[in-house]
Amino acid sequence: MSESTATATGLDPAAEEALVRDGFWRKLRRTAGHVPFAEDAAAAFYSATDRATPLTVKATLFGALAYFVLPTDAVADFLPLIGYGDDLAVLLAATRAVGGSIRDSHRAAARRFLQKD
């Protein structure tokens, strides 16, 4: 994936990864009780940061997760009910695109994280 590749966030892939690594857990902790896709987001993070995950899959997942982390996106997250709808749509599209790259071990780690919080 080249630096000039357009992404859903408008950031280059390296910037998306840095944004996610820096702010993902903070955003997930703040929103976990409000978003029905918290486990899927956490599993996607674990997959994106797994050394065994192919680079193209990592780029797709980091892009979707960066969209979730960004405070400004197509629909403001503070709007009741619909605020996270666009985040969910982007995450679902990404996870469907990468298929089986989100393994059972990633989902188990996500469940453990959410249960302890």
UniProtKB/TrEMBL annotation:
Topology class, membrane: Multi-pass membrane protein
Keywords: Membrane, Transmembrane, Transmembrane helix
Domain of life the protein comes from: Bacteria
Compartments reported by the entry: Endomembrane system
Domain DUF1232 residues, every copy: 57-92
Protein name (database record): YkvA family protein
Protein species of origin: Marinibaculum pumilum
